[in-house]
DNA sequence: CACGAACCGTACCGTACGGTACGTATATGG
DNA sequence: CCATATACGTACCGTACGGTACGGTTCGTG
């Protein structure tokens, strides 16, 4: 395992603490609760400092997204020959992690925030969220899928297409439902297992299919 | 074909016109632009009437969702024996319609609105949107899937599970991406075709699989 | 025609937010 | 010990919104 090189955290420790408080405020009360005065009060700092550090309110929101993204680091595997069983397990773990990340309250709060602003500011926050928040998980999945192909376990022409298929199978409409306020999934393990089974049935080579239960 | 019985439109024609203007305002400028004064001005009505008709701002938002849902009517087929080819075609049409609905600017604007409010008001708008906006399309898909099963073309234990699989294959993360402001899909027809192919490969009986191209 | 209901347009009120200014405290460096 | 920088806390300003009140107008009805 190797961890991604964490860039030297574009913000000072004090600023990180403030951003942490701001995230907490956002999670608890939604965007309405995220006022500059409220952040200053919760973080015991002055509004003047907020504006000095982040420019304006939008700058603060962007900084919150960047900060949260900098906290989430995903591990990538290296070497380690894949078998049909281990590929299955790794994809299941990926699927579970994906569902867990999407269901996290900070993730949901930030997505709600960005979506709420997205037809006003030219989707600046939305872009930021997609680029900073999704890149890690995309890379991890692509690496896994590519490794499966190199090991002769998966077969596809377009890796991106295969990945999006996997994503859809795992997430379905759960993300939007959660964003709309529906309580989270009851059994994420089962959902992940089902999705991976379908994915392997679609993209697995004979080597993989031979080890899968007959359907029906 | 039979059209759903349209309930006598809980709002007066004048109120419908006002709601139409409000939707237009929301689409153009996002939630920030949807002020009570703005709606009154755009619709040439008084704020007093707005409050008389809809109670308060939240009531107006709810009414907008209800009104939009009442406009969308989906057709359900009846009778008409399904073949492998016609099932495929109908599912593709469903997939295309689904993508088209989700990509519609009014749909996106309302979803953004409901999502933006969803961690404040106990997701009242989110519930409303899911119940009033999704029921139609869910019913249509379930009817189609059930018909496929009765015709011996599809095989599954849980129809709901099969439907969610289809949904995920068709939509993947497109809905969230569009909500975040990413420009819409280039080739919805291709996306729909891919999804349906995968769906039939997963849930089709031999009768269906026999007519499908060998993969990869 | 007269009466009343519904409605429009506008003016108004209280509040709360984003952003700025200022006085004070703490700390760092010479 | 002083000087400078950084940041805290508070007070302040302008604006804009949700919601209410009121005078004038239209329109249906007896």
From TrEMBL, chains A, B:
Keywords: DNA-binding. It comes from Rhizobium leguminosarum. The keyword DNA-binding applies. Pfam families: TetR_C_7, TetR_N. Residues 12-72 form the HTH tetR-type domain. GO terms for molecular function: DNA-binding transcription factor activity; transcription cis-regulatory region binding. This is TetR/AcrR family transcriptional regulator. Residues 35-54 bind DNA. It comes from the Bacteria. Signal peptide: none annotated. The keyword DNA-binding applies.
